[in-house]
Amino acid sequence: MLPTSALLRAGLLLVLLLPSGPRASAEQSKAPAAPTTAVSVVKMAGGLEHPWGLQFLPDGRLLVTERPGRLRIVTRDGRLLPPVEGVPKVAATGQGGLLDVVLAPDFAATGTIYLAFAEPRGGSQNGTALARGRLLLDPGRERLDDVAVIFRQEPASTGGLHFGSRLLFGRDGKLYMTLGERFQMAFAQDLARHWGKVVRLEPDGSAPPDNPFVGRAGARPEIWSYGHRNPQSAALHPSTGGLWVVEHGPKGGDEINIVKRGANYGWPVIGYGIDYSGARLHETTHKEGMEQPVYYWDPSIAPSGMAFYTASLFPQWRGNLLVGGLDRTLRRLVLDGEKVVAEEVLLRDRRERIRDVREGPDGAVWLLTDAPAGSVLKVVPRG
């Protein structure tokens, strides 16, 4: 064998030492740096208390949730309208409260929206829930009507951690909802609980008959995939229609996963992070029957909010994946198929936690910042 010095000069030692499979250390979990993009950030609205979810209404206004339990409409000139009436009562504790919002595919005709929220269940119990209602947009009388809770994460739990709660409609017309494992790690593998799962629902909240665990004894029929920790991002791939989610790891090991029918994503059996104490959490990084992430971050970025970019305002970004971080950055991931081949870290000079990321109808990238005085921001090309 060549001397170590010769191997180093040849650049081969790193290759010899790398484990098989996905990248396995802080340095190796990073794709090469993408070219730097010059962007400007415009503050479009402020004064929001811990905003969490953002959707665009057909008339160009924004629908924004605030975690304490308010649903707000932001006008095109940045004014906050009074809170929409009729929002269900929320358990605004820890990470809980009013979380994501999504418009029904037939919103233009029906006004139907869906809200994900931490629901009080009596005493100290709570759980993630899904409500459906009609948004009435009469000027000065914006309100929700015919509100009903149509799905509840079961069983209820205590505490204020890991509610998950991103919502989106798939190309199949079904509603997908991400659910955290309530900081009870082992139960992400338990099909008798909704904890640490992605669920797939009919628009009325029931379980579609072709879900993978329908009819299986001891399994919840709404479950689509399992073994998740706390997925707070979800987006559909613009070409394949596949469901991509990003989920929080512990200390390291934030993951991007492509969610497949009935698949197990391994938490807490496999993973790339460690406990906050520094203790080992996982048996290993790979195990037969458990999915590997497309990409992961170590150290963590605390991802929340994700969107594929398809517009033309940033032509060099088309087909890229944008991921927000509570580490106060926006990540642009360049893809080759389902592989991340480059990463650009944006907004390094700002000090705002990014909670949601959306592509706007104007082609700009719209962000929510998570703070007691949170904002709606718009990212555009500089100049």
What brief labels describe this structure?
383 residues, mainly beta, 4-stranded antiparallel beta sheet, 4% helix, disordered N terminus
Tell me the layout of helices and strands.
Elements (H helix, E strand, L loop, with lengths): L3 H7 L2 H5 L21 E10 L2 E6 L5 E5 L3 E5 L23 E6 L3 H4 L1 E9 L5 E11 L6 E10 L14 E3 L5 E5 L17 E5 L21 E4 L3 E7 L6 E6 L5 E6 L35 E3 L5 E6 L12 E5 L4 E7 L2 E8 L7 E6 L5 E5 L4 E8 L2
How would you briefly describe this protein structure?
The chain has 383 residues and is mainly beta.
Helical region count?
3
Share in helix: under 10%
Question: What is the average of the pLDDT values?
Answer: 92
Radius of gyration: 21 Å
What general form does the structure show? globular
- Order of secondary-structure elements: HHEEEEEHEEEEEEEEEEEEEEEEEE
Q: How many strands in all?
A: 23
- Beta fraction: 35-45%
Strand order, main sheet: write it out. 1-23-22-21
Residue ranges: pLDDT <50 for 5 or more in a row? 1-28
What does the largest sheet look like? 4 strands, antiparallel
**Given the helix and strand composition, which structural class is it?**
mainly beta
Report the end-to-end length measured between terminal Cα atoms: 56 Å
